[in-house]
Amino acid sequence: MSIAKVAGRGVYVPGNDIDTDRIIPARFLKCVTFDELGPSLFFDERFDGDGNSKGHPLDEDKYAGAEILISDDNFGCGSSREHAPQAIQKFGLKAVIAGSFAEIFHGNCTTLGIPCVVMDEQSRSKLAEQVQSNPNEALILDLEGEQIIFANEIYPMSMKASAREAFLAATYDPLDNLLSARDQIQDTAQKLGYA
Amino acid sequence: MGKNLFQKVWDDHVVRQLDSGQYQVFMALHLIHEVTSPQAFGMLKDKGLSVAFPGRTFATVDHIIPTDNQSRPLKDDMAEKMLQVLSDATAEHGIEFFAPESGSQGIVHVVGPEKGLTQPGMTICCGDSHTATHGAFGCIALGIGTSQVRDVLASQTLAMDPLKVRRIRVEGELGMGVTAKDVILHIIRILGVNGGVGYAYEYAGSVIDAMSMEERMTVCNMSIEGGARCGYINPDETTFEFLKGRDRVPQGADFDAACEKWRAYASDADAEYDDEVVIDAKDIKPTVTWGVTPAQAISIEEIVPSPEKAEGLDKNLITDALDYMKLQADAPIKGTKIDVAFIGSCTNGRLSDFQAVAKVIAGRTVADNVRAIAVPGSEQVDRDARAEGLDKVFEAAGFEWRKPGCSMCLAMNPDKLVGDEVCASSSNRNFIGRQGSPTGRTILMSPIMVAASAIEGSVADAREVFGLQEDAA
Fold first, then answer.
1. Would you say the pTM of this structure is higher than 0.95?
2. Mutating which of A16, A30, A108 best tests the B interface, going by the most B Cβ atoms within 10 A?
């Protein structure tokens, strides 16, 4: 199914260089399926050693049920763990807006159908501010028009061209497409002596 | 105009262009481990797919394996289950598994090269961001996610965008006590943790040329910490010499033919680059981190930065990092008390790392308040080190000599920091909570700097502690 628009309320988690160890601490990687990861999202940022809430935005009442995560530069850096976008998705978030993304994280999100949207600092901080004062208002990510609509205002955004194309064409999970070239894969393997 | 290595390897391995604009690229070698890959076998099963090229995938176990007692079943039930799922899946699909106590187990990025599976001109991938390590042999080596592990198992290909190439030339000669680890920490400090986004890094120049393969692996290993999708070094005689006679490498006349083929992948003299950076080796000193990203690094001679004086840097990041690390701005990093010393990991857990440390710690003792562990990167490294008596040298100095695994680099096993302990670590990430305690503090440095700090009980300059003088070279 193609993803042309994502609509949902936003939540702003500020900070540059938020790494995947923070998004999902390594101890939660002890699992053989991704099913249970949702509650562990940002766990050590959200809870202290006794399990008490530290007042993270994800746990503020006004953002309950938010579906679009907004953060800052170099989001998702570090480990390649797909557990990070899996936890984001299982938590109920459908898209991420940031100043920039680390590449492996971006690729993992795309394959899972989570659009990663880039916004410059000025529009991002204005949007984050607006979301903070109107937490009940839904954001609309318009992938086709490459714009974000919030409270009747239009914000500029950009996406990696190949990812945007894949969302619109419903090919963001590339597996079927890759498998459709079985003969060409064999040819390449033969040519390189890998068959 | 000539081509660089990235372009040559890429062109050889492209199967076709996809409608999205991405390319379908054949993966010559696929490495898997127990954390990011078992789920991919489940995905295959859900889709009724089999493994397309089982002979091109190899498995090992490293992240969850304890380094004290590896006998089965593992004490941690979930760790045992992860190991069992990987073991069953590889058996079912005909994939070779370097199991614990097989003599071949170890950290995936140590095992691949030491077996000779990693060869110049290959595309290599693994569900692990430090796959860039293999670039030391002249490979495009990519960290991938689990869904991509599934893609590679099912099709031996990945969908990906091409990369730009930045050549980083490190020219001159390194001073005494300055290591490959200092070179890469220095590069990341200069170019930033996201400076490499969109790029493959080609490391070149006289300093890189003079490095051993193990040193080159240390440099390439941390490419991801600089944001680069991968990093590589052109294959040369050092590369071929390292590979000669290894398990999975062609032998005899076939080896000579392979060398010819491998040599041709090296960047042409007139190759084009999207960017170039030149670094003077004189500027590289023993380097340590003070903050919570690998770019938050300074030389051992410097003081910790202050947010007020930071120009062109994010002041909030500095303030937050200092808060977390409980360090004073404008104070020397040297002398910062440590609780734990860790030598190991895919960055610095190879034989030469332990040799270098053994040479300087013989006859010295770890400070009373410091818990020090040395963790070989593989069963092979462990055997080789023991054959030279290195384990005894470490033990005599007060280190524990452990069994192979990722250990305290990421603490998915019993090796963890406790509370807000400070660890002098030869690993690759100083992220918040990285070493297993949500308040634990990591200071990254080279193995000999870890050793010097372990002996002093605080962050120390290996050149001073071990009397490494320029004229003694």
1. yes
2. A30
